[in-house]
Write a sequence for this structure.
């Protein structure tokens, strides 16, 4: 079964962004250029936070708009990026309604979740977790 | 320092000529690491002797450090400037997203020079610096609105979640010498008047953001050292304590030992301490906990305050208000306010105006006593019956500190040291080196910390901890012993603040851990080098203060602290003077 990252309870998010740093660190990198998670306020910190992660769509709009076939649909949902094919056109980033296609400005390529869930154990408040993509998850 | 580390880049912004440029300054970071160590060096370079703190010659310096964006709980920004409040060292630290945003924008430090002819705000979007018209924002009643407007207006220029919005309120515009700079609504460069320096430059706000990768010396070691620090932080009992109740956890224990300054320190115990305690606030008001960037602790506690409108039934407004021990002390016990909604509304008004809550609370406490003892009359207070416990009148007085309808409020807007020099009442003007008192009256060591600390802050050397340990062990403090312990602690804290590590994580970032983290960041330092940095940085800060006229031997000890018994008994002036002499001699 294919896995993806699930947002368990966004209300528990304190906005520490430890997951964002963990995502870049999976490659041994510091900073956030390579991060595929976005935590930002829901219109000011007083209103809480928004957790932006790839939903691993069954029929991903990002892949549909890629002109070079650099985004391949993964079996079970989500996409894989073939960076050597990518021309940096931003179509994928614009197509994602969740804004979960991040942009690596240093490489001028999309930064796409690989569903490794390296980030999840670094969430101190159990906001995110790895889950298997099943029928129920699709309905949700 | 790693060759591709953007830390070396210093962004210079000249507000007078509306120019900006970047200079590579590896020399600064190799010598001082970042934060305080680099900040004091830049202040020496940028601030001419005798500078007018509210003149264009006073620089605003922001520094971060090599561990920012790499390791958790190293997310503070150090601001350095000449303080308009004390006339010497202005140094204030804030978290929020400020440090990560500056580092991710590609800088180790920012230097803001000159003054703008018209109100402006600055946007730093990676390599681009924009000067934007802020004339329409100038004079906005609430600092909250400034944040909301800029968050929307600049949503396209800087990445959401990885930017900081530093702004001032009306207090900064009006140059109240203890005006704050607010970061992300709930964090502050609170002390020593950075907000007034912003105001003097007609700088309403600074928006900075970016998203970049940061190099490490060894990728594998990076993950190992990271996990070690992460584990220690998330498993530490101290961290749990600050997550659960926040710094407000200190109210009850301080009150129990008689160390909670109450009614302008006429007492050390407050009969309503239970109401304003961290426990009660968490149970009845806590609405949300939030964290600074890259900090798992989330010590920031927001109270949800529901207030009914009197004009219409079932119509409420709900505000989210940040609270901490110091604001609770300054607007609660120090002003005799035990009514929590009243206390929170006063705190909120200070926030709306952009005042340092600690200085503002102490200033109102002094003003109350000045009125009660007849030093001033209702004419000076603009008809306000300032009285301990009366939150409504304190809210009105807070507005007057900023609008300044009388000479009296103009004086109070410069702090209690200044106000008492005009109206009298120095014996109960609770300021140390010109900076108003923090919320601890634990014994001689806390006050010696405020007196000798370079920032006159409880965070310089944590004297309150020496007092409490002595009380717990039943040991007697000695002047030389206290002076030496304070000096040792303040020196080590220069290392932590050069790395912009939050002082709450000081138990995790031991010397050994600091060296390992630094090596990953490309700084192969030794323990001796760290020690030297701490000693030198503290000496440089004190040399700067001496250059600007500060003399520890001349600093006033407010008589009130010698009169109100502390948990360690009455504080003795001769003890204090001996410890101060020892400190001055050994530094």
């Amino acid at each position: 079964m294919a896995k993806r990252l699930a947002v368990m309870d966004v209300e528990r998010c304190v906005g520490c962004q430890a997951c964002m740093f963990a995502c870049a660190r999976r490659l041994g990198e510091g900073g956030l250029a390579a991060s595929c998670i976005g935590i930002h306020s829901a219109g000011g910190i007083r209103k809480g936070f928004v957790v932006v992660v790839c939903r691993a769509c069954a029929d991903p709009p990002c892949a549909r708009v890629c002109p070079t076939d650099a985004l391949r649909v993964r079996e079970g949902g989500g996409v894989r990026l073939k960076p050597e094919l990518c021309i940096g056109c931003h179509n994928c980033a614009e197509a994602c309604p969740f804004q979960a296609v991040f942009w690596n400005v240093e490489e001028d390529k999309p930064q796409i979740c690989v569903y490794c869930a390296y980030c999840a154990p670094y969430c101190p408040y159990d906001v995110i977790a790895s889950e298997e993509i099943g029928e129920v998850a699709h309905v949700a | 320092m790693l060759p591709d580390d953007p830390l070396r880049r210093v962004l210079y912004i000249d507000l007078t000529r509306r120019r900006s440029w970047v200079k590579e300054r590896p020399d600064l970071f190799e010598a001082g690491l970042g934060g305080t160590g680099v900040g004091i060096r830049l202040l020496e370079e940028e601030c001419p002797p005798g500078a007018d703190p509210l003149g264009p010659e006073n620089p605003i310096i922001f520094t971060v450090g090599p561990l920012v964006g790499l390791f958790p709980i190293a997310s503070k920004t150090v601001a350095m400037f000449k303080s308009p409040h004390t006339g010497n060292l202005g140094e204030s630290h804030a978290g929020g997203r400020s440090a990560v945003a500056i580092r991710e924008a590609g800088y180790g430090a920012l230097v803001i020079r000159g003054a703008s002819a018209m109100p402006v705000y600055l946007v730093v979007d990676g390599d681009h610096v924009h000067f934007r018209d802020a004339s329409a924002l100038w004079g906005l009643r609430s600092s909250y609105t400034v944040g909301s407007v800029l968050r929307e207006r600049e949503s396209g220029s800087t990445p959401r979640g990885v930017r900081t919005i530093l702004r001032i309120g009306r207090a900064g515009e009006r140059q109240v010498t203890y005006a704050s700079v607010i970061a992300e609504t709930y964090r502050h460069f609170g002390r020593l008047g950075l907000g007034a320096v912003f105001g003097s430059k007609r700088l309403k706000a600074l928006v900075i953001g970016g998203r970049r990768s940061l190099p490490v010396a060894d990728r594998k070691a990076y993950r190992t050292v990271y996990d070690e620090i992460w584990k220690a932080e998330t498993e530490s009992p101290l961290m749990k304590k600050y997550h659960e109740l926040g710094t407000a956890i200190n109210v009850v224990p301080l009150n129990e030992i008689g160390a909670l300054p109450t009614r302008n320190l006429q007492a050390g115990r407050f009969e309503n301490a239970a109401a304003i305690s961290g426990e009660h606030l968490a149970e009845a008001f806590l609405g949300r906990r939030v964290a600074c960037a890259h900090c798992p602790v989330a010590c920031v506690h927001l109270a949800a305050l529901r207030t009914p409108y009197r004009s219409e039934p079932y119509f409420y407004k709900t505000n989210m208000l940040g609270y901490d021990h110091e604001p609770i002390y300054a607007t609660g016990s120090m002003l005799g306010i035990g009514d929590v909604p009243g206390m929170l509304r006063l705190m909120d008004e200070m926030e709306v105006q952009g005042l340092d809550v600690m200085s503002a609370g102490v200033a109102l406490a002094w003003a109350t006593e000045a009125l009660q003892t007849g030093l001033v009359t209702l004419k000076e207070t603009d008809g306000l019956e300032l009285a301990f416990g009366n939150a409504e009148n304190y809210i009105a007085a807070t507005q007057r500190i900023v609008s300044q309808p009388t000479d009296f409020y103009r004086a109070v807007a410069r702090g209690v040291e200044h106000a008492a020099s005009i109206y009298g009442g120095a014996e109960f003007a609770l300021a140390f080196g010109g900076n108003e008192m923090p919320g601890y009256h634990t014994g001689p060591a806390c006050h010696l910390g405020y007196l000798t600390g370079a920032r006159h802050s409880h965070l310089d050397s944590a004297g309150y901890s020496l007092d409490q340990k002595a009380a717990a062990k039943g040991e007697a403090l000695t002047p030389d012993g206290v002076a030496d312990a304070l000096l040792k602690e303040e020196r080590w804290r220069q290392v932590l603040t050069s790395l912009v590590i939050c002082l709450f994580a000081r138990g995790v970032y031991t010397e050994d851990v600091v060296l390992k983290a630094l090596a990953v960041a490309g700084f192969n330092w030794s323990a001796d080098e760290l020690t030297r940095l701490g000693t030198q940085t503290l000496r440089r800060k004190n040399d700067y203060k001496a250059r600007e006229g500060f003399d520890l031997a001349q600093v006033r000890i407010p008589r009130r602290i010698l009169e109100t018994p502390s948990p360690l008994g009455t504080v003795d002036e001769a003890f204090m003077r001996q410890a101060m002499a020892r400190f001055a001699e050994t530094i």
In short: Residues 18-25 of chain A form the longest helix (8 residues). Chain A touches chain B through 32 residues (CB under 8 Å). The mean pLDDT of chain A is 93.
